[in-house]
């Protein structure tokens, strides 16, 4: 293997030299000057402004959660009065540090706008406590956002300049040396198109060539851990939970190697595997095979959890939803089906394309799915319940490979070109209007993956491996306890134990993971019904109104009956009112929209 | 005293038996008891009686409080009389003496007294005792309620319970107790202490404080006199008020009231002259009182007093008058001010009018303004689209508010204004497009689908307007078709009124684009195809309204997959494609289309979906038994009536989640594996599952910070190993325990309180 200069660097350099500016985090003792200098620099020599910032170098702990429901209720955070000290001086910043309400709202998980059925006093006190706790935790989470020191990188063209025109060579020239070293090319023409996979920490890279070449390396230091030839066609390659284990889908069976290149297992129950996908929290290796089976292998105990027949012929398109660990399969009839090991049938089936589906990718928030089909269309679907396309584009030659980055950038490999689209923010879908970056490779794309926690896109193609720089692709702050790129061997072992202890059972995979935090209403109702049946009466039923006898001679039977009657009538009226409202709603629905009788109606037959 | 004693002795003689076991307190009677010293005693008695004859002690002779068989000859006895002594006989001679009237009275009282009641049953007595004891102990125990409640609600209890730690002594105290060691320190402290400079907050020295507190003697005296005077005045006033209050004369009160009213009027007039602003305020107050009255309706004959008066009014003239007076007052108070009345009425009418028009009507009108039903193309439910629609409808809404009578006239005008608006917008857009011409080409070609939708909506609105301008249906159709034929990405928004020049322009543009090689040549024919499709759809709509729903779904799906998305023209086109010329590309597209013509993906999918829906539907239960009640055999089927009768229809399940999503099949089956991990029983205080769900929204360490997690998982009770957990004592919680038990009546220790108070004072001083 050798590192070669990328093809893009052969082109003649631009006339005006690029001014590089690495954006430094502003310290509190510094004045505003640095910011303004970076913001609006009117100097004539600086024609282009390209600010780029790559990944952080320091490990930082980030233990705050990333996805929450928001509540609308605004809140003020109070700061207590300053306390006196011995010297008589007062603390100018007394009390806890202020937190911005928006950030707190981001971490709120109780939707207070939702009305609860009227609780009893005892219950209400519990609810109040729970709400207070939730508020406190969200405030704490918002406070700890202070620890997310790093900001994502970005690439900006000068006004009117298209970022897609910026070449890799330009970027490499503009960035610092450490970041520039992350752009490299592996010229491996001998063993055919390559599939590749980054480990979860983003530190290690494994790739397998069609003609049997399998290698793993620490790609940052370029230290090779192992390199073998399995003497068999390699369909796909994937790291298991850590970089020490490697699953390779070979021509016949699935093999598992360690980081020395020693074959540990040959899983014969998974044969003719075309695609591999590893679910890190469940320790499941999902394999899609030519025979049409989707098999889940639990790598922690070595058992096959579920083998599901997709009934759709050869499976060659697979991806996972990182949000809920649901497997998405693309089929030749234009549908994408969503699978969980707990269900024998697909959870959802979506008709996406007129032709077969060529590639599927799901973003890290689990909100958007990008698909590309044989009809040369690229579509972005909304996965939050509606499964409708948000945007669609026809590409000159349909995308054969798709990948989402951690921050929601979408990369598509079309022939020997890689296009990258960016959205507005992290959770927004990529706007397909204009590519963010484009890059031409020396061969046809065969595998695409964004490197976690690095602004790097790894592309496996027929000419080898290319590591592209994509500013702003990755999450800048990583959780040091969860996936630490700089961890030692000992740390890795400890993490492994912890991860195994926290393994999520396979049957918990479902479309909405939050549903697990809900009460199983159906069985609750069932139990209630059975209890009522057993007892012969419903103990929870509301007792009919019985008027209380009143003093002072007003408690005549007639008045009692009258009062009873009154309450009954009221209830009856309420019921009727409700049913009337329902009927009205139904009628409204039934009415064709805009069914105002027009003058031409009389001619309608 | 003597009289009492005499009476007692008389009683005693009457009820000898009972009195025999009375205590022998009296000195005389004790001496009489001795039998053997009878003689002596008699003698003594005689002597005494003789001696008493001449003095005050004469009465003592009659004294006798002890019942005995042998009575001295000097005292009265009933012995030997043979019949019982009656009280009245005894009283006969006393009658004359007035000094015994009191005795007589007393006797009467005694006579009138009944016999002592029977004692209560033992059970009842015990019950009373129990009740009293319970009340007492519950009262004692209730003192603990706040403690118990506090402990129950506490986030965490640490056992053994330690007293709340006294707060750390503030550093000022520490400093006060600190002795200066080094000479420098001593010097500094000397300086500080000499001036009694406050160590902490430099406000006032003690001397200054003291001087501030002090007051001169004259001042104190004056103040005291003032206070005295005020007190005296107050007491006078109170006395007077009390006296006046006690006057019951109605006339007096009436006069008083009238006088007050007159006085008020006078004051008001005066005020009006002196200070008109204040007078106005007064007037407002009056008005406010009126309003309050109007609200409360206090002076109507509905109060307690009024009701009682109403009963009396029949007979009592005064009551009738009072009632009338009250009614008059009510009238006066509730009368509206003439000027504001008309305004209010107008407002009221308006207010009434609005709710009079039901919401439904408004909605229908809005809808009518929105889209033409015949030209309506069903789009997918999209939030963006909904917003856009709302925006479009906004200008039309005021129109909907108006009544239907004036609508027809106004509608025309408004339509014209709307059209004008749209034209303005269009012209603006055209300008912007011209501006866009200067920009790079790809921008022009690629456009957001959402904007497309906006444009299509706009177009629909325009078309609808055109229909209202009494154009024939055919024209509509043609216009729609022509509109469709335009290039959808750019020109969809053009209303058919101005389409001709527009289209020419677009063709020019197309040519230009073609020259630049950045346009899809296929677009024109495609749009034509779409136009045709639309026409077909339209005919479908008109022809078969009943099949509309099914058709709509179909159309949706078709649209979904066939709507042409604008193509991306990136800088780097894949090499293979780059070699192709545009025509070749077109050919390739055609090939692809032909290739997919055979397998109708959409139809297959719809079929699959229909099957899934059918499979998930609850099945009807057929209980017909062939051959019962009619002829049976091969080839004979039970009659339709019978089948209908024995068919039990399954209840309709909830609507499917993918009911409105034509391109999706959502599995409705329950995930039993996941359900096994869900909570299936509601814990105690919760009555609804939503309540419980709200309390379990912050799970685990994965989604919380370390500190928050630790706090959330804090144990409710913490015990120290090896430490005895003793029951709570009163002292632990700040009560004083009595000598008897913890349950004794608990009081606050005054001594302790005083100590605390002192401490508090000290602290204050230090501060």
From TrEMBL, chain A:
Gene3D superfamilies: YVTN repeat-like/Quinoprotein amine dehydrogenase
Cellular location(s): Nucleus, Nucleolus
Keyword Repeat (UniProt): yes
BING4 C-terminal domain boundaries: 435-513
InterPro entries the UniProt entry points to: BING4_C_dom, WD40/YVTN_repeat-like_dom_sf, WD40_repeat_dom_sf, WD40_rpt, WDR46/Utp7
One GO BP: maturation of SSU-rRNA from tricistronic rRNA transcript (SSU-rRNA, 5.8S rRNA, LSU-rRNA)
Primary localization class, coarse: nucleus
UniProt biased composition (Basic and acidic residues): 53-66, 531-541, 567-578
Stored SUPFAM superfamilies: WD40 repeat-like (SSF50978)
Subunit description: Part of the small subunit (SSU) processome, composed of more than 70 proteins and the RNA chaperone small nucleolar RNA (snoRNA) U3. Interacts with DDX21, NCL, NOP2 and EBNA1BP2.
Function: Scaffold component of the nucleolar structure. Required for localization of DDX21 and NCL to the granular compartment of the nucleolus. Part of the small subunit (SSU) processome, first precursor of the small eukaryotic ribosomal subunit. During the assembly of the SSU processome in the nucleolus, many ribosome biogenesis factors, an RNA chaperone and ribosomal proteins associate with the nascent pre-rRNA and work in concert to generate RNA folding, modifications, rearrangements and cleavage as well as targeted degradation of pre-ribosomal RNA by the RNA exosome.
Protein name (record): WD repeat-containing protein 46
Species of the source: Bos mutus grunniens
UniProtKB/TrEMBL annotation, chain B:
Segments of skewed composition (Polar residues): 1-16, 465-479
Biased composition, class Acidic residues, residue ranges: 341-356, 394-408
Family: Belongs to the UTP14 family.
Compositional bias ranges of the Basic and acidic residues kind: 55-64, 409-442
Pfam families: Utp14
Originating species: Bos mutus grunniens
Stored PANTHER family: U3 SMALL NUCLEOLAR RNA-ASSOCIATED PROTEIN 14, U3 SMALL NUCLEOLAR RNA-ASSOCIATED PROTEIN 14 HOMOLOG A
Source domain of life: Eukaryota
Record keywords: Nucleus, Phosphoprotein
Disordered, as annotated region: 1-64, 330-358, 386-452, 465-503
Localization annotation: Nucleus, Nucleolus
GO terms (BP aspect): rRNA processing
InterPro entries on file: SSU_processome_Utp14
The protein's name in its UniProt record: U3 small nucleolar RNA-associated protein 14 homolog A
GO cellular component: small-subunit processome
């Amino acid at each position: 293997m050798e590192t070669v200069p990328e093809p893009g660097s052969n082109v003649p350099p631009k006339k005006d030299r690029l001014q590089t500016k690495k954006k430094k985090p502003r310290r509190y003792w510094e004045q505003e000057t640095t910011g303004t200098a970076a913001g609006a620099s009117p100097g004539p020599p600086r024609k282009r402004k390209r600010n780029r910032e790559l990944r952080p170098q320091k490990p930082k702990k980030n233990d705050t959660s990333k996805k929450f429901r928001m509540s609308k209720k605004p809140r003020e955070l109070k700061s207590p009065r300053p306390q006196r000290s011995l010297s008589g001086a007062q603390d100018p910043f007394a009390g806890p540090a202020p937190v911005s309400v928006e950030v707190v709202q981001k971490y709120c998980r109780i939707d207070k706008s939702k009305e609860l059925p009227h609780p009893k006093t005892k219950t209400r006190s519990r609810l109040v406590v729970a709400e207070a706790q939730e508020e406190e935790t969200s405030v704490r989470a918002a406070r700890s956002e202070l620890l997310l020191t790093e900001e994502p990188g970005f690439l900006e063209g000068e006004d009117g300049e298209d970022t897609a025109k910026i070449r890799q060579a330009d970027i490499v020239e503009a960035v610092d040396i450490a970041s520039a070293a992350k752009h490299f090319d592996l010229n491996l023409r001998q063993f055919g198109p390559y599939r590749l996979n980054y480990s979860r920490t983003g530190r290690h890279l494994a790739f397998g060539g069609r003609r049997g070449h399998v290698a793993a390396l620490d790609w940052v230091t370029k230290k090779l851990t192992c390199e073998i030839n399995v003497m068999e066609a390699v369909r796909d390659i994937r790291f298991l939970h850590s970089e020490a284990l490697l699953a390779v889908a070979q021509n016949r069976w699935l093999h598992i190697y360690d980081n020395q290149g020693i074959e540990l297992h040959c899983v014969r129950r998974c044969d003719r595997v075309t695609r591999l996908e590893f679910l890190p929290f469940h320790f499941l290796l999902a394999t899609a095979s030519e025979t049409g089976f989707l098999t889940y292998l639990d790598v922690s105990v070595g058992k096959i959890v579920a083998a599901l027949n997709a009934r759709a012929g050869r499976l060659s398109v697979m991806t996972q939803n990182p949000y809920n660990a649901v497997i998405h399969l693309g089929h030749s009839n234009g549908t994408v089906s969503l699978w969980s090991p707990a269900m024998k049938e697909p959870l959802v089936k979506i008709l996406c394309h007129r032709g077969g589906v060529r590639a599927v990718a799901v973003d890290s928030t689990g909100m958007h799915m990008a698909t590309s089909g044989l009809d040369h269309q690229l579509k972005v679907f909304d996965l939050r319940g509606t499964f409708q396309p948000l945007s669609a584009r026809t590409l000159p030659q349909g995308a054969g490979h798709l990948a989402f980055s951690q921050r929601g950038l979408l990369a598509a490999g079309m022939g020997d070109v890689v296009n990258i689209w960016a959205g507005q923010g992290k959770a927004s879908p990529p706007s397909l209007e204009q590519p963010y970056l484009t890059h031409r490779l020396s061969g046809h794309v065969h595998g695409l993956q964004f490197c976690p926690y690095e602004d790097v896109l790894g592309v496996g193609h027929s000419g080898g491996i290319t590591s592209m720089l994509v500013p702003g692709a990755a999450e800048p702050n990583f959780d040091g306890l969860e996936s630490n790129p700089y961890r030692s061997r000992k740390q890795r072992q400890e993490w492994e134990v912890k991860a195994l202890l926290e393994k999520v059972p396979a049957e918990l995979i479902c479309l909405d993971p939050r549903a697990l935090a809900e009460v199983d209403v159906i069985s609750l109702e069932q139990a209630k019904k059975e209890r009522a049946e057993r007892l012969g009466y419903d103990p929870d039923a509301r007792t009919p109104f019985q008027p209380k006898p009143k003093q002072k001679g007003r408690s005549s039977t007639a008045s009692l009956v009258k009062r009873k009657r009154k309450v009954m009538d009221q209830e009856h009226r309420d019921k009727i009112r409700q049913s009337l409202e329902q009927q009205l709603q139904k009628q409204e629905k039934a009415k064709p929209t805009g069914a105002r009788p027009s003058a031409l109606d009389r001619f309608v037959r | 005293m003597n009289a009492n004693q005499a009476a007692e002795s008389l009683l005693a003689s009457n009820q000898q038996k009972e009195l025999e076991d009375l205590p022998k307190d009296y000195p005389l009677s004790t001496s009489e008891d001795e039998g053997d010293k009878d003689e002596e005693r008699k003698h003594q008695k005689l002597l005494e009686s003789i001696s008493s004859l001449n003095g005050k002690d004469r009465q003592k002779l009659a004294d006798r409080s002890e019942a005995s068989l042998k009575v001295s000859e000097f005292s009265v006895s009933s012995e030997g009389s043979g019949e019982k002594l009656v009280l009245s006989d005894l009283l006969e001679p006393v009658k004359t003496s007035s000094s015994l009237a009191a005795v007589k009275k007393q006797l009467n009282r005694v006579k009138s007294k009944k016999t002592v009641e029977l004692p209560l049953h033992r059970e009842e007595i015990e019950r009373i005792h129990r009740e009293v004891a319970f009340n007492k102990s519950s009262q004692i125990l209730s003192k603990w309620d706040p403690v118990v409640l506090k402990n129950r609600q506490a986030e965490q209890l640490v056992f053994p319970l330690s007293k709340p730690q006294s707060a750390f002594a503030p550093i000022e105290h520490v400093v006060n107790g600190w002795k200066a060691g080094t000479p420098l320190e001593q010097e500094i402290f000397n300086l500080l202490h000499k001036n009694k400079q406050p160590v902490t907050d430099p406000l006032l020295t003690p001397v200054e404080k003291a001087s501030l507190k002090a007051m001169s003697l004259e001042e104190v005296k004056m103040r005291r006199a003032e206070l005295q005077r005020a007190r005296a005045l107050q007491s006078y006033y109170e006395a007077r008020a009390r006296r006046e209050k006690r006057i019951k004369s109605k006339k007096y009160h009436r006069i008083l009231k009238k006088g007050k009213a007159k006085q008020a009027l006078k004051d008001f007039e005066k005020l009006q002259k002196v200070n008109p602003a204040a007078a106005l305020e007064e007037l407002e107050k009056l008005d406010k009182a009126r309003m309050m009255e109007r609200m409360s309706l206090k002076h109507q004959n509905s109060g307690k007093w009024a009701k009682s008066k109403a009963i009396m009014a029949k007979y009592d003239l005064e009551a009738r008058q009072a009632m009338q007076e009250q009614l008059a007052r009510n009238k006066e108070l509730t009368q509206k001010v003439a000027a504001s009345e008309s305004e209010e009425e107008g407002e009221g009418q308006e207010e009434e009018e609005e709710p009079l028009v039901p919401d439904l009507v408004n909605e229908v009108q809005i809808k009518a303004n929105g889209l033409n039903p015949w030209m309506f193309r069903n789009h997918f439910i999209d939030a963006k689209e909904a917003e856009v629609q709302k925006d479009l409808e906004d200008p039309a809404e005021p129109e909907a508010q108006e009544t239907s009578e004036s609508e027809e006239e106004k509608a025309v005008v408004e339509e014209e204004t709307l059209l004008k608006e749209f034209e303005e917008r269009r012209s603006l857009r055209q300008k912007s497009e011209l501006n866009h011409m200067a920009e790079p080409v790809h921008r022009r070609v690629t456009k957001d689908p959402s904007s497309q939708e906006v444009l299509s909506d706009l177009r629909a609105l325009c078309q609808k307007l055109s229909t209202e301008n009494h154009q024939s249906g055919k024209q509509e159709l043609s216009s729609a078709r022509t509109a469709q034929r335009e290039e959808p990405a750019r020109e969809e928004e053009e209303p058919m009124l101005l389409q001709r020049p527009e289209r020419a322009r677009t063709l020019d543009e197309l040519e230009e684009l073609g020259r630049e090689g950045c346009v899809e040549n296929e677009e024109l024919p495609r749009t034509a195809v779409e136009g045709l499709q639309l026409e077909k759809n339209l005919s479908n709509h008109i022809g078969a309204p009943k099949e509309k729903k099914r058709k709509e779904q179909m159309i949706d799906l078709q649209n979904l997959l066939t709507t042409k998305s604008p193509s991306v023209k990136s800088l780097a086109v894949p090499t293979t494609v780059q070699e192709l010329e545009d025509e070749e590309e077109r050919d390739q597209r055609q090939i692809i289309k032909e290739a997919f013509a055979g397998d109708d993906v959409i139809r297959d999918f719809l079929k699959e979906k229909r099957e899934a829906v059918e499979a998930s539907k609850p099945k009807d239960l057929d209980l017909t038994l062939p051959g019962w009640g009619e002829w049976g055999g091969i080839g004979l089927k039970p009659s339709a009536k019978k089948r209908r009768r024995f068919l039990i229809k399954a209840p309709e399940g909830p609507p499917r989640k993918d009911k409105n999503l034509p391109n999706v099949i959502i599995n409705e089956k329950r995930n039993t594996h996941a359900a096994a991990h869900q909570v299936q029983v509601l814990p105690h205080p919760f009555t609804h599952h939503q309540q419980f769900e709200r309390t379990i929204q912050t799970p685990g360490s994965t989604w919380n910070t370390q500190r928050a997690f630790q706090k959330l998982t804090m144990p409710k009770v913490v015990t120290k190993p090896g430490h005895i957990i003793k029951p709570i004592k009163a002292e632990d919680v700040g009560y004083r325990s009595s000598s008897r038990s913890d349950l004794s009546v608990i009081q606050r220790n005054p001594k302790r309180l005083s100590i605390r108070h002192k401490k508090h004072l000290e602290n204050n001083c230090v501060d």
